[in-house]
Design goal:
Rossmann fold; 2 domains; six-stranded parallel sheet
């Protein structure tokens, strides 16, 4: 099929490359010329495992030609289906900001009025229930004398940053929300090559339910993380290893072993934004979601608990403190809502001298905190440090060994349960929940 993707962020770029790999001809439409040029050169505009290989295979001079990018919305006229993968950032009150989404939908709608044949538009961005029906569809379906019939669908994404390509290829489910059967059939056709390889459940539903499934999915997972962190904090009070407890309760198939790693909590673009957005939507409707509010409160408190553990061992004023890990999770350079941000802010309030390191996210964090030191390696950050805080569980941190010998004081406060040579290097070690 001929597919267009409006938006070339983490979702849009990954989905476009994966669709091309399934055999579709795909064009990314984005207003940023530098992103367009990067994709057309056969290179990824974001850091995502497996994505460089896909873009190299299908874009650029040596690719299959199934993937390209442009700033011209007219490119959608030569396609059958368009996916809207535009950002819906969080507003100050917790609600989602639809300005970018509406602008993109309006431009798409104006362009499609030049088309004679039917066209399907699928919203893939995360939007609260009712958004596609009430705000997006009218911009796409505004009647005109010669405009094409536009079918509107909703296909929420469940891609984790760092493993997005794998998640696309091995979905737990594919949710197809649509206004009518014809639109749903078009959406089925898009995913047919994937579903022929992987027999994932297909959920067919209406637009609002499809929108809600995404929020319910993320709210449940975020709450599960906050619950295990709450339990982990209790375990710490009683000098119990929360991971030993988690291993045991994870054997109960009603609970399951996933998302039971207690620590600093969740960040990124999805859990914080989506949880607060559905809380705001619920409160606007007159319902107070106590469980979700509690999940946010627990999560927001974890970085300060890490710093309080550090305070018990050391007054960091004037001391060099290494912050290992800046991205919100390993495998990505995304620092949105990363737990490293409140950790750095807390260290600054304590007048610490901060040396930060991350294998891929340092440039992004430097824009936010240009005043702190950024080391070229974990060893460089640890050299002369009086303490080290482990904030992101990059694999390379588990390989650290002799590097700790260069510290002024071998104090490590671990927020992610990294396997360190504690006894071998005589580390003064403190785990957040163990």
């Amino acid at each position: 099929m001929n597919i267009s993707i409006v938006g070339s962020g983490y979702v849009g770029t990954t989905v476009a490359a994966c669709f091309a790999d399934l055999g579709h001809d795909v064009v990314n439409v984005d207003i940023d010329q530098s992103i367009v040029d990067t994709i057309n050169a056969g290179e990824p505009p974001i850091h995502e495992d497996g994505l460089p290989e896909l873009i190299d295979a299908h874009a650029g001079a040596d690719g299959t030609g199934r993937l390209g990018a442009t700033t011209d919305y007219d490119a959608v006229l030569d396609t059958d289906v368009t996916f809207l993968c535009l950002p819906t950032p969080q507003a100050d009150d917790g609600s989602i900001d639809l300005s970018i989404m509406k602008a993109g939908a309006e431009q798409l709608g104006e362009t499609l009025r030049e088309k004679q044949d039917r066209h399907t538009v699928v919203v893939k961005s995360t939007v609260v229930p009712g958004t596609t029906e009430e705000h997006i569809a009218p911009l796409l379906q505004e009647p005109s004398e010669n405009g094409a019939e536009v079918g509107v669908g909703m296909n929420p994404e469940f891609l984790r940053e760092g493993t997005a390509v794998h998640d696309f290829r091995h979905p737990d489910k594919v949710v197809l929300g649509a206004v009518n059967d014809e639109t749903r059939e078009e959406m089925h056709a898009v995913f047919a090559p994937l579903l022929d390889e992987h027999e994932a459940p297909v959920v067919e539903t209406d637009l609002r339910t499809a929108e809600m499934i995404k929020y319910a999915n993320n709210a449940f997972l975020a709450s599960k993380v906050s619950l295990i962190n709450d339990i982990g904090n209790i375990c710490k009070q009683f000098d119990i290893d929360a991971y030993e407890v988690a291993d045991a309760i994870g054997l109960d198939d009603r609970i399951g072993e996933q998302f039971l790693r207690s620590g600093l909590g969740w960040g990124g673009s999805c859990f914080p934004k989506d949880t607060r957005a559905i809380i705001h939507a619920a409160e606007e409707s007159g319902y107070e979601p106590g469980m979700l509010n509690a999940a946010v409160k627990v999560n927001d408190g974890q970085p300060e608990r890490l710093l309080e553990l550090l305070d018990q061992h050391l007054d960091v004023a004037g001391e060099r403190v290494a912050v290992l890990g800046l991205a919100f999770k390993p495998g990505t350079d995304d620092i949105r809502n990363a737990r490293s941000i409140p950790v750095i802010e807390g260290l600054q309030k304590r007048n610490a001298s901060i040396a930060a390191y991350d294998p891929v996210a340092a440039d992004e964090m430097r824009e936010r905190f240009p005043e702190i030191e950024y080391a070229d390696s974990a060893a460089g950050a640890l050299d002369g440090a009086s303490a080290a805080l482990i904030v992101t569980e990059w694999d390379e941190f588990a390989a650290l060994d002799e590097e700790f010998e260069t510290m002024a004081r071998k104090l490590v406060v671990d927020g992610r349960r990294v396997d360190l040579p504690i006894e071998e290097r005589e580390l003064e070690y403190e785990g957040l929940c163990w």
